[in-house]
Amino acid sequence: MSKNTDSAKKDLAAKASTVVKSLTKPLSAAKTAAHSANTESKMLAIILVRGRERGTQTPIQVTLDLLKLTKKNHCVLFTANPALQGMLQKVKDYVTWGEISDNTYKLLLEKRGKLFEGPLTDRQNKYSYNYSEINGQKYKSYFTLNPPRKGFGRKGIKVAFQAGGALGYRGEKINDLLERMI
């Protein structure tokens, strides 16, 4: 019986090695070009426009937690990638987002950036706390903003931006909103 189990283990090891080799194949030229185009993507500013009410569905609450958007008018910055786009599509009825310019980024950091002054890890060194390091200083990973001067839009916070409201993708116009909220 030991011969059968040894041969079965060898067969299983051979199959596993072929699976690993197929997973580690080099990317094709088209995939490499697409990947390099995605790595040069812009920084996205994401703002929680609507509050997290009691009736909000659990998957949406979990996605907002992963985005670190816990309170209304909080802003976080992420680099655009396909996983983030999927998360934004899931919470598009609660947030607005767009590409942030360098000038607005500097203004946001200067006016609303809070220094991270806590410990970097817990006592047992099992958990490391989230912070952003910019120019040698450690900042919290979110920004607390004021409600925007002159409001979000004519139709309010329950309508998409393309229809005159405040929700969803705004592109470069996120900079105008951020300047009114700083």
Topology:
Elements: H1 2-23, H2 29-39, E1 43-48, H3 58-66, E2 74-79, H4 82-90, E3 95-99, H5 102-112, E4 132-134, E5 137-139, E6 143-144, E7 168-169, H6 174-181
Parallel strand pairs: 3-7
Antiparallel strand pairs: 1-2, 1-3, 2-6, 4-5
Describe this structure in words.
The radius of gyration is 22 Å and the shape is globular. It starts with a helix and ends with a helix. The model is unreliable at 15-39 (pLDDT under 50). The protein contains 6 helices and 7 strands, in the order H-H-E-H-E-H-E-H-E-E-E-E-H. The chain has helices spanning 2-23, 29-39, 58-66, 82-90, 102-112, 174-181; strands at residues 43-48, 74-79, 95-99, 132-134, 137-139, 143-144, 168-169. The longest helix is centred in the N-terminal third of the chain and has 22 residues, at 2-23. 38% of the residues lie in helices and 15% in strands. Strands 6-2-1-3-7 form a 5-stranded mixed sheet, with helices on both faces. It has a two-stranded antiparallel ribbon with strand order 4-5. The chain has 2 domains: 2-35; 43-181, 2-Layer Sandwich (Ribosomal Protein L30, Chain: A).
Tag the structure with descriptive keywords.
single chain; 182 residues; Ribosomal Protein L30, Chain: A; 2 domains; two-stranded antiparallel sheet; 6 helices; 7 strands
